[in-house]
Amino acid sequence: MSFESIPKILEQLQIETLYQQQPLQRLLDCWEEVVGKVIATHTQPISIEREVLWVATSGAAWAQNLTFERQKLLKKLNQILPTPLVDIRFSTARWQRTKKKPLRQQNISSAEHPSYLGNIVDRNQNIHSLPKNPHTAFADWSQTIKRRSQSLPLCPNCESPTPGGELERWGVCSICAARSF
Predict the structure, then answer these.
(1) What residues does 12 pair with on adjacent strands?
(2) Beta carbons within 10 angstroms of residue 66's beta carbon
(3) What are phi and psi of 37, to 5 degrees?
(4) What is the distance between the alpha carbons of residues 159 and 130, in angstroms, rounded to a whole number?
């Protein structure tokens, strides 16, 4: 049995994930062009599983009508996709049409973020020197975190050091706040 390094395993997983996502992304890019604007507003491709495309529809009538048209759609899609599809399934089950809002860039400074710790500069740390090995890097990182967290207030739930902005905003640390949602 051969062992591979963690970075090599992660690289392989990343490549496999990109390969699996590619057909769906390509399909999403050309969906409106293939099915037309009217159908595209009432449908959303959700996933490709075992060469079957799953499409959410805005209503049962759309799902039924598109089921009758699926062979024609399959022919068009298979001309575009790298791996041909075997079938298309339409369902209202996962329909979630969100109105596309124009993206506005928010100019927010890091100081306004609830997790902002202030201008904490560790004078003992030399920014230009890199650690010699992973153990040294971890030791340096853990010492820096300990020094930073000494002056922070504690979360009332888990008693972990918490930035003041998180306590003001949620009354607890961000992890405890996320658990409550």
Answers:
(1) none
(2) 20
(3) -65, -40
(4) 33
Among candidates 83, 60, 148, 162, which has minimal Cα distance to 115?
Answer: 162
Task: State the sign of the Cα–Cα–Cα–Cα dihedral 167, 170, 176, 178.
Answer: negative
pLDDT, one tens digit per residue, over 51-108 is 899 999 999 999 999 999 999 999 998 888 878 899 999 999 888 765 555 555 556 6
Q: Cα angle at 9 between 4 and 12, to 5 degrees? A: 130
Tracing tokens 């409550």 back to the chain, one arrives at 180
The per-type count for the chain, helices as H runs and strands as E runs, is 7, 3
- Report if pTM > 0.85: no
Tokens at residue 48, please? Answer: 């490709």
Is domain 6-91 annotated with CATH 1.10.10.10? no
Domain layout of the chain by residue ranges = 6-91, 114-180
Which ranges of 36-163 would DSSP assign to H, the alpha helix? 37-41, 60-68, 70-80, 134-149
